[in-house]
Amino acid sequence: MPTYNVENLRRDFPILERQVYGKPLIYLDNTATSQTPREVVEAIEQMYFAHKANVHRGVFSLSQESTAMQEAAREKVRAHINAASASEIIFTRGTTEAINLVASSFGSFFENGDEIILTVMEHHANIVPWQLLGTRKRITIRVVPITPDGSLDLDAYRTLFNERTRLVAFTHVSNVLGTVNPVKEMTDYAHSLGVPVLVDGAQAVPHMKIDVTDLDVDFYAFSSHKMYGPAGVGVLYGKERWLEAMPPYQGGGEMISHVSFKKTTYAELPFKFEAGTPDFVDIAALSTSIDYINRIGLPAIAWHEHELLQWTTDEMMKIPGMRIFGTAPGKSAVISFLMGDAHHYDTGMLLDKLGIAVRTGHHCAQPLMESLGIEGTVRASFALYNTRAEAEAFIAALHRIAPLLGV
Ligand code: PMP
User: What is the whole-number distance in angstroms between the Cα of residue 327 and the centre of ligand 1?
Assistant: First the structure.
């Protein structure tokens, strides 16, 4: 199995040396955002100190440098997800904006009475944009349920299609259950009925190799800050034929070809969807984070995270009253749990006192919580820099707080 020296690699992340309440920080909220290695922060610094100039605007050298860096980053992203062309890579603020872009622009093709299919495990980012579209037109949202282990019910999925279905939109990996959904199988089925597919890849791209050409999805969205990159930038991949046909999402500079008060024409792809000055600083740094991930290798990262997941899950199950939500085979390294009748918030607070950062609450997935019959969970999630020693400290902490929680 591929492997790497996690202790050496941790030195790339200065924040991991921090203490919280006098205890070494154990950062287990990687699903919400991952930490950033020194070289990515240095790439930001380099951009500010050596190259900063607005992109696509200047004849002068600095502007050409920053433009070249942004476009090199676009090519890096293209290669990383194996898109056919760099013009299919749109830079956005994140996954949320990418999905809003599709809902607003692609959604303009929908007519009253049309339907879309989502799943019950969606993040609010892949629910609310469609509901907003529904305030402008009468759109029916059909929802794929889950089975007891947190897998999508694929038989139910197939029954939700009809002649009014215009799009299927679902997450690749659940940010609560860790379930890895069968994107290819679901896409093949949707395509066999002529229905395009959008995939929310926010929780997949940091952990597994994504090949949008092989998956054959129509749209794929993800965020830089979850893949060891800077905050404030994300990506929408879209098949060229859709992006060509879709109207612009926002208007302004950068996205036009010619403006007059009589008629404005739009820029070529991908710029048609990038109104205003893009976050060219963070876009360049995202490129560095992709290099960082590739140097370690996604198979090695996946293996490391899986080992931590397996060991931690087995140990957690030995704790009386422990309930883990999401046990699908091949799941990602996310563990959502509740201890006895303890409130998730109390569990999270006590763990914080021991230096352990976990997320508590509904994780922006309230419909999923409702279907599970709970208000929230505690969620621990692993990244490439977490260690077995940290997992052991987490388990020891759970044993220590259990009596305090009345478990
Ligand atoms: N989808 C999923 C599955 C997520 O986990 C998240 C982030 N928690 C998002 C979408 C939204 O990502 P962002 O806030 O970076 O736009």
Answer: 21
> What atom of ligand 1 comes closest to residue 96's alpha carbon?
16
Domains annotated for the chain, with CATH where assigned, are 6-30+297-405 (3.90.1150.10), 41-294 (3.40.640.10)
List for the chain the helix, strand, coil content (%; round to 5): 45, 15, 40
Ligand 1 atom with the shortest distance to the CA of 364: 8
Q: Hey, whose CA ends up nearest to atom 6 of ligand 1?
A: 202
Q: What is the pLDDT of residues 56-104, one digit of tens each?
A: 878 999 999 999 999 999 999 999 999 999 999 999 999 999 999 999 9
* R_g of the chain, CA atoms, integer Å: 22
**Which residues are CB-neighbours of 263 under 8 A, at least 6 positions away?**
none
Query: Positive or negative CA dihedral for 291, 295, 296, 297?
Result: positive
Q: Which residue has the tokens 């048609």?
A: 272
Q: Considering the entire predicted model, what is its pTM?
A: 0.98
Is 76 known to be catalytic?
Answer: no
